[in-house]
Design goal:
The chain is mainly α. 47% of the residues lie in helices and 7% in strands. It is built from 4 helices and 2 strands; from the N terminus they run αβαβαα.
Amino acid sequence: MPAIASAAWTSNSAGYILEHNKPAIFVVNKWDLVKDVMDTEKMGKYVRAMFPSLEHVPIAFVTARRGRTCCACCSLPFNCTSRRARG
């Protein structure tokens, strides 16, 4: 499986997001390098297992190679904020 930042960092970040009701996005970068080895469903399950309290957070799979997914990812924070405001 891919490397995830240290347990202390992930725990502190998840706690901050939940405690302060902050919008968040999981961004899986360099997806073009591993997409043939692991599909998005498997990686999504892995991310959800690592952060079970953040199951509501969207996951974006990006690559800057063609720039398409990076641009789509830019609108996600606005969607998260408006979703949070609606309750």
